[in-house]
Amino acid sequence: MKKQTLHSTLNQTDEKQRQESISLLNQFLSDFLALALVTKQAHWNMRGANFIAVHEMLDPFNEKLLEWSDTFAERIVQLGGTAYGTPPVIVETARFKPYPLDIYTTRDHLNALKERYGALGNAVREAIEDEKADPDTIDYLTSASEDLDKYLWFIEAHLDD
Ligand SMILES: [Fe+2]
Question: What does the DSSP 8-state code read for residue 47?
């Protein structure tokens, strides 16, 4: 994402690193909001085996993804930046294939979610390993990737029958 004009702050993180962190956090803000939405899409539309278990499993995933979105957006602002959380920005920047609207079985939804939770977990890990963001942002990303790994495990364990 392109450089922003930053608000002044006494935060001493150098400007280049603040710009890198803000850009990364805005990317993940989009990705996490998009994944939160498609998690609800699955929660609402799935049918069949293990319905109630999977339906109820997905709500805490959605809530945590929204919590992380809020944490990322607030971190952007703490660094002097602007959080981009509007629908057109999410549509333009979230790194997901469109979620299918014509799948119904719990298995098909879990497979669609598996692909997306796995991809996002790996993208977060890649950003951590790149070490371009400031240490506090990296700290958030590390905790967020632990959550994504846990949810991927829950999804994969449901599929392993
Ligand atoms: Fe619900």
Answer: B
125 CA to middle of ligand 1, Å? 30
Answer for the pair 25, 137: CB distance below 8 angstroms, yes or no.
yes
The rounded Å distance from CA 56 to ligand 1 centre is 8
Residue boundaries of the structural domains of the chain: 16-159
Distance 76 CA to ligand 1 centre (A): 30
Nearest in space to 98 (alpha carbons), one of 112, 114, 119, 118? 112
pTM, 2 dp: 0.96
The CATH fold of domain 16-159: Ferritin (1.20.1260)
What are the pLDDT digits (tens) for 89-118?
999 999 988 999 999 999 999 999 999 999
